[in-house]
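Dear colleague,

Thank you for sharing your sequence with our group. We've completed the structure prediction you requested, and as agreed, I am returning the results in plain text so they can be pasted directly into your records. Please verify that the sequence below matches your submission; if there's any discrepancy, let me know and we will rerun it promptly.
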Amino acid sequence: MAKHLICCWIWALVALFYFEQALSFNLDISKPTVFAGPPGSYFGFSVDFFNPDNKQLNILVGAPRANTSDQTPSTVTERGAVFNCPWHKSGSCTQIEFDNDRKNSNGQQMEFKSNQWFGATVRSSGDHILACAPLYQWSTYGLSEREPVGTCYLKKGNNIVEYSPCRSSIMYENMFLCLLQKNRVVIGGPGSFYWQGQLISDDITEVISRYNKEFFTPYGNQLSTKSAGAQYDDSYLGKPVCIFCFVNIFNGKNMESMYNFTGTQVSITKVFVRHCDVKMDLLVGAPLFMDRGSDGKLREVGQVYVYLCKGGFTFNNVIKLTGSEIYARYGSSICSLGDLNMDGYNDLIVGVFGADKAVLYRARPVISVNTTLDISPQILNPEDKSCTLPGTTTTVSCFTVKYCLKANGKGAPPSLHFQVYLTLDRLKHKGAIKRVLFLHNKMSHYSKNMTVSNSQGPACEELQAYLIDDSEFRDKITPISVFMEYSLNYKAAADKTGLLPILDQSTPTNVTKQAHILLDCGEDNICKPDLKLSVVSDQKEIYIGDDNPLTLEVTAENGGEGAYEADLTVTLPSQADFIGVVRNSETLSRLSCAFKKENQTRVVVCDLGNPMKGGTKIIAGLRFSVHQLSEQDTEVKFGLQIQRHDLHCVFICSILCRVSAPEQVFLPIANWQPKENPVLEDDIGPLVQHIYELRNTGPSTFSKAILDVQWPYRFNNGSLLYITKFEVDGNMNCSSNRELNPLNVTVSEGRNRHSVHRRDLEDKQEEENLEILDCGNAECQEIKCWVGRLEKGQSAILFIYSRLAVSTFLKVKTIHLTDIASLKVIWNSENPQPVPGWVVALAVLAGLLLLALLIFVMYKLGFFKRVRPPQDDSIEKEQLQPQENGDRNTEA
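Please find the predicted C-alpha cells below.
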C-alpha cells in the first residue's frame, strides 16, 4: 500500500481536498439537502459516502449516542448507530444493523456497549463499510474487570464481521480512528504502551475470512507499530487530532514513520487530474464560530470556509457556509462525497451533530461557453455605400456582425437555451446619437433566443449593420464598440431533481469588438496634427469708461494631419462679454461660435472644422465688450486654446500665458534721480515683473517640457531690464546662463503687484521714433526651465523680477522691449524598445547561479539523502513483523 496520511478530526477541523477545478464556486448553497436523525443521537458526528456500484448512491451518517432499534430486549443505552441516507431524498435515512449483545457460556456479560459511541467513526471503500465504537469495553472475566479496547464492524453486503485487534492484549487502546484504504483497514489505538499510541493495519480479505465469533484468531498479514522508549509516553498516536497535535506519515508497507508534522491536521481524500494540473480546494470547519443575529447578540452557529485554489497552495475567493442553529456544531465533520450523481463534480456533506443533522451541498453542473464575435470590415469607409436601407433607395455604408456560441457541460442537458443581447456603439451612452444601426430594424440593439447543442459544434448568426450619414454626428474618432452578452435559461437546463447548472465563472459572459471610421490621417488611421494658435488685439490699451469694443484677431493653423472635432475655446475674463464674430470682412472666416457657461466659467466655443484638414489656416475676428473695468484692474486676460478629440493622445493641448506688469513705463519718473552706485532696487529703476504660466488644458498628461525665455538685458553697454531674482510655482526647475543681480543690490521679498496709475489722456504724447529691442539687436540672457509632470488642469508658473534701467532709456525717446518665450513639449514614443542582448544574457547567468546556490544549500541540509531506519538502536525503531498480541511488550 502506498503512503497513507494517518489522521482525522473532531472539533476544529481542517480538510484538504483535491477536486475538479470548478468544485467550490458551483456548490448549491441556496437549496441544500438536510438529513435528520433521532434527537440527541449526535447524528452527523461522522459522515462518509457509500457507492458500492453505479446504481447505489448513499450517504453514511454516524450517530454515536443513538439508542438502537434491536428487537431483542437489551439493557444497553446509547449504543450508537450508523444510518444509510439516499442522497437524492430528505429525511428517509434508515439504520444499518451491525451486532447484538453477547455473553459467554456461563451467561455472564462479556461486552459492555452502553455509551460505546458506535458510529463515532464511519468509513467506506467500494462495497465495504467500517464503523467503530471507540468506548467499547470487553471483559474476559465477567464484571470484575473491563478493558476499554474499542471495536469495529466491517460490513460487505450482508456479511458483517467484528474487528477488534486490541481485545487480545491488555493495552487500553480506545480505537478512535479507522480508515479503509484499497484492500486494507487501518485503526489507531492512542492508549497502547502507556498512551504512546499504536497503529494497526490488516488485510480486509483476511479479516473477513478468518473471523470467528467464539475465539480470537490472529492475522498473518498484520502490520503495527511497536513500543518505543519512555520519552514517547503520552504521545496519543492514533488519536483523532485537531490543533497542536502530532501528525505522522507512515509507510504502508512496513508501518515505519516517514514524516512528522506539528500543527493543524490535514486530510487528503481524493486527487483528480485535469489538463495535467492538480486543482486543490481547501475546506475549513469552525464548529464554534459565533455570529450576530438580528437582535445583535452573538450565537454559536458554526461555519465552513471553502477556499478556491488559484494554483499550488494559493487560494482566493473564500465561500462561507454558515449554520443556522445554535450549538449545533455545524462543520464538526466534513466529507467530500465524490461524484454522487455522476455529473462530473464532487458533492459535499457537512455534519451538524449538535442539531442531529447532516447537510448535503450538491455541486451544480458547470457549463463552459466559448463565444466569438467578428466585425467585417473593421475600418468603415463612409464613402463606400454598398447597402440599401430596407424600404428606401438610400444607400449606406454597411458592415457584418457575426457571433457564435459553443457550450459543453458534463451533467447538463443535450440542448442549452441562451438569451443573446447585441448592442451597437455601446460607448455612446443613453441619449447620445448612435452612429451605427442594424440594417433590418434600424435600431442599435438586438436580442435573440438561441439553442446550443451540448458538446457539439457552435451555433452562429450573421447580421448586417450600417453607418448613418456623417452629417448626423460629429464624433468620428471614438471606436464603434459592438457589445455581445449572453445569459443561460437555468430553469430549462435543470435536472429531474431541480438542480440548476451554473456557468463557468472563469469565462466572462460578454465580449466586445471594435470598428473604426476611416479618417484622413494616413495609413495608420491615427491623426497627428500640428496645431498652432496666435492672437492679435486691435487695442493695446483699454481705458476706463471707453465703450469701444475689443476685437481679437485669431489665427489657427494645422501643419500636420487632420484634426477632428477641433474647437477654439476662449475663456472670458470677468470684465468682458462676448458680442459676436466679425462678419463684415472678406479676409476673415465666419466661424460658428456659441457662448457656454461651465462651472461658473464663461467660455466661447468656435468650430474649426471636423476635420480641420492639414494645411488649413483660419483667420477670424471675435468681438468683445469690456465695460466693467475698475481702478484696481491692471490687465484684462483672455485664455485661448485649441481643443480637439484625440483618442490616441498624440497631441497635448497646452497653453503658455505671458503677462508683464506694467506693460508700459512712462519716463521720466517724477522725483527720481539715478545713482551711479545703486544700493537698493529702486536706485536702478521701477519694478517690471513678468509672469509666465504654463497650463496643461488636457486631455493628456505630459511628463517633460522645456520653457525657454530669451531676456534682453544689455544694449550699447547699458542695462535694459536688470533681473534681480526669479521664482517658480509648481513642478518646474529653472536656471540662468548669466549671474543674477551682479550689482548685489538689496532685493525686497514677496511677489508684490505693481500698480499702474491712470494718466490723463491729454498728457499722452504721440509715439515717435519707436525702436524695438529684441535678441536680434540686443544682448539676451537665457532662462531655461525644465517642467516635470503636469496633469490636466495643472500649471507651472515662472515669476521674473527685474528693474528698468532708467539711465539707459533716458538716452532715447521711446524703446519697445520684446522678450521671447518658447515652450517645447517632449513627446516620448510609446513604441516598445527591444531588450538589449546583454540584459538577457545577464539574467540567464543570474538565474543559473541562483539555481546552483539553491541546490548546494539543499545538499548541505541533507535534502537529497534517503531517510533510512537506524540499524543500531533497537529501542527507538519500530520493526515491521507479524505480531502475536499478548506475547510481547509485557511491560505495557
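Summary note from our side: The CA atoms of residues 196 and 230 lie 9 Å apart.

Kind regards,
the structure core
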